[in-house]
Amino acid sequence: MQILETQIPIIGVGGTLRSIAKYVQELKNYPLKKIHNYSISSESVNQITQRLMSYDFEQISQIESIGSGRSDTVQSGACVISELMEKLKLTELLVSAHGLREGTLFVSMQYPDKFFNDIEISLPQIHDIINLSTQSDHLSKSVEDFTSLLFSITLISEMEKILLSQSISKIDILSSFRDVDNILYAVMDDDSSLSHREQLIVALSLIYSKKKKKSESLILKYKMLLEKNDKKIIRKISSILSLCYIFLKTQAIVTSSYENFNLILKIYPKNNAFPEVLFKQACEKLETTLDIHVQSDVYYQSSFDVHQI
Question: Which of 309, 222, 239, 231 is nearest to 274 (CA)?
Fold first, then answer.
């Protein structure tokens, strides 16, 4: 039997699986203290199961990530998980920090009519529930149009657009925390369905947009979680973030278009105030990162002045 052909992520819940996942992270010196959405391979489960079966209860109780509370049940639980993964031909399993009760509550709140009338909830509706946590808060029309344009002209991929939207939705934390480590913790503590790597890219992109050197050191610190091209993605998202931050903070109306290989931005500031120097620097950063020419004009309403930047 094999169920991966459906492309549905297989999610495991329960204290035994969480204990096993923590133990795997402990042995691998995993740099994040986060269990939710941690991906554990069948190979890791098998190795841990074999290791646990060679220990007695006293030895297991000394393992910090397991403790005495599960020392008498974790062996049998590990065997069950290992056998299930083998029978179902699962190569990996996502660990949930929640339980079945939270899932039941969530479904009942999302689809109360079907839930309380014992009507079957369809697979697409389940997908909608899973995807809720990857959706960002509503973006301003200017920012949404700008990011959609970048996607339409293939300057960013679909996944980069999702990560960018997540980054923009959290952009206020840049002014909430002085310590960039707190920015990292705030993003990683979020209960998101993004993978640890994807959440890390969001956090590092936010930090990179303000503190490049600090971000570089964090990229090195968490390199075991990142892929070869991720640093380029972080630079790309951060350069777009710098512009979006200006748009959102100034509440300017921005129209964006693409003509003759030029990205054209028309800015209509609110209250005729706009940080032109900062905006120029952000445009130059975007040009370098995306290898594109940016043409921009700022239109001041009261004097009808047009400033080309």
Answer: 309
On whether both 126 and 195 belong to a single domain, the answer is no
Whether residue 201 is found in the same domain as residue 65: no
Residue found under tokens 């925390």: 177
Per the structure, the count of domains in the chain is 3
CA 92/CA 168 separation, integer angstroms: 31
Report the C-alpha gap between 1 and 258 in whole angstroms. Answer: 50
**Residue 151 shares a structural domain with residue 282:** yes
Residues 150 and 260 in one domain: yes
Tell me: do 154 and 106 sit in the same domain. Answer: no
Tell me: do 146 and 266 sit in the same domain: yes
Amino acid at 82: S
Question: Would you say 98 and 13 are in contact if contact means Cβ atoms under 8 Å apart?
Answer: yes
Nearest to 84 by CA among 122, 127, 52, 40: 40
Structure token pair of residue 81: 């998980």
- Which of 296, 294, 297 is closest to 285 using CA atoms? 294
pLDDT in tens, the chain (309 residues): 444 444 567 888 888 999 999 999 999 999 998 999 999 999 999 999 999 999 998 999 999 888 888 888 999 999 999 999 999 889 999 998 887 787 788 778 888 888 788 778 777 776 666 655 555 555 789 999 999 999 999 999 999 999 999 999 998 888 777 777 788 888 988 878 789 999 999 999 999 998 899 999 999 999 999 999 999 999 999 999 999 999 999 999 999 999 988 999 999 998 878 999 999 999 999 999 999 999 999 988 765 565 666
Domain of residue 46, CATH code: 3.30.420.150
Sole residue written with tokens 């949930």: 96
Residues 185 and 294 in one domain: yes
Give me the amino acid identity at 306: V
Determine the structural domain holding residue 196 and report its residue range: 141-308
Check if the beta carbon of residue 282 is closer than 8 Å to that of residue 210: no
Same domain, 162 and 246: yes
